């Protein structure tokens, strides 16, 4: 009887703490248990998992390709479980955090939409929790990356931070006073789909002129390939590098050539940076943060990209010259930021789950003491009666 009651209460307690984790996040990392947790970063091409300690240090990291059969949500979930169980063989894991490239609902249970995976309203947290013996936290990968940079990286000490992740597209996240701002429906921070050029380039989201069509890895590669395909004289160096195979032109190659002094690649990065600065100025007008952190693969270009972004930001900032300017910094944690942030956010879930279990145990102990107090006088009376 007591075993059944214990298990039933444990299940309801776990559900309660997972529902309330978002409302009690502010500053709660200061008292979270200093236990190792697993963070997982899920993208369209790779799944990276790592055990992270309370100081953001990666104790061990494993990585695998996103399954080719990702049209089935279960295949990706199988991969996640395999990585967690592999790490659990060597580490005492207390919780698992997932950073997913997609829209996650406000309860951080369902992935509403993932552009590179088949998740459509997928109850990822519940599915994984039913297979793993620890609490699971699910969030958007830009949110987890921003949390990591605020806790351990370029945004440390900032009260109002906006992170922009430049990869294939543009992702983003907002932190205010130690709390991730996810919006009413959980999908805040999709800055890449702000319209900056009405009637501009078509975006995969279905609209035209989205910011990520002008300042992202895709935009950078598209411009370079168009020049190369047109056999432009400014593109001779990159054409020679890929031996005429235009489809082999990639973002990292453009960055490499720009560092080597290739004029076209430098100019392309400047163009991307200028569009980045325009978007940041718009976000400053709306959100007024103290710091913008620029992450994602394209940020590897560093000052070749961020220098032009700072210049354009100052030129387009509303009220320029009469207001403080937000700091613009490159992210420090690199491609592991999403994984580290997911693990650290999972520690908050671990704390609340541990606290709920401790309260349950305390209630059970009080019940046992009360029951013992009732039994003791009765035992004494029975002993006297036998005499």
Automatic annotation (TrEMBL):
The keyword Kinase belongs to this UniProt entry's keyword annotation: yes
EC category: transferase
Transmembrane spans: none
Gene3D superfamilies membership: 3.30.420.40
EC number: 2.7.1.2
Gene Ontology terms for molecular function: ATP binding; glucokinase activity
Keywords noted in UniProt: ATP-binding, Kinase, Nucleotide-binding, Transferase
GO terms under biological process: glycolytic process
GO cellular component, one term: cytoplasm
Pfam families referenced in this protein's UniProt entry, alphabetically: ROK
InterPro entries hit by this protein: ATPase_NBD (IPR043129), ROK (IPR000600), ROK_cs (IPR049874), ROK_glcA (IPR004654)
Homology family: Belongs to the ROK (NagC/XylR) family.
Protein name: Glucokinase
Organism: Streptomyces boluensis
């Amino acid at each position: 009887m007591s075993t059944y009651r214990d298990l039933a209460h444990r299940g309801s307690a776990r559900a309660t703490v997972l529902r309330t984790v978002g409302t009690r996040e502010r500053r709660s990392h200061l008292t979270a248990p200093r236990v190792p947790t697993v963070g997982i970063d899920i993208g369209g091409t790779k799944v990276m998992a790592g055990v992270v300690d309370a100081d953001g240090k990666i104790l061990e990291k494993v990585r695998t390709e996103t399954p080719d059969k990702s049209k089935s949500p279960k295949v990706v979930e199988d991969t996640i479980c395999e990585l967690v169980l592999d790490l659990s063989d060597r580490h005492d894991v207390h919780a698992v955090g997932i950073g997913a490239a997609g829209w996650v609902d406000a309860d951080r249970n369902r992935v509403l939409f993932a552009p590179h995976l088949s998740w459509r309203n997928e109850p990822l947290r519940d599915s994984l929790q039913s297979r793993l013996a620890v609490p699971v936290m699910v969030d958007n990968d830009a949110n987890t990356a921003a949390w990591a940079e605020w806790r351990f990286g370029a945004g440390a000490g900032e009260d109002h931070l906006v992170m922009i992740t430049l990869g294939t597209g543009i992702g983003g996240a907002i932190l205010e006073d130690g709390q991730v701002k996810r919006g009413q429906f959980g999908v805040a921070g999709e800055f890449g789909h702000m319209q900056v050029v009405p009637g501009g380039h078509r975006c995969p989201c279905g609209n035209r002129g989205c910011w990520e069509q002008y300042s992202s890895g895709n935009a950078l590669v598209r411009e370079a390939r168009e020049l190369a395909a047109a056999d432009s004289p400014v593109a001779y160096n990159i054409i020679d590098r890929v031996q005429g195979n235009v489809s082999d032109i990639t973002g990292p190659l453009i960055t490499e050539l720009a560092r080597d002094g290739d004029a076209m690649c430098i100019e392309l990065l400047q163009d991307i940076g200028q569009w980045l600065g325009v978007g940041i100025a718009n976000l400053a007008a709306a959100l007024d943060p103290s710091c913008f952190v620029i992450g994602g693969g394209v940020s590897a270009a560093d000052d070749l990209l961020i220098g032009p972004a700072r210049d354009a930001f100052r030129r387009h900032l509303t009220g320029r010259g009469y207001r403080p300017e937000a700091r613009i910094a490159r992210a420090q944690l690199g491609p592991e930021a999403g994984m580290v942030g997911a693990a650290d956010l999972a520690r908050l879930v671990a704390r609340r789950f541990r606290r709920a279990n401790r309260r349950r145990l305390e209630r059970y102990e009080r019940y046992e003491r009360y029951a013992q107090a009732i039994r003791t006088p009765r035992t004494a009376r029975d002993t006297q009666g036998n005499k």
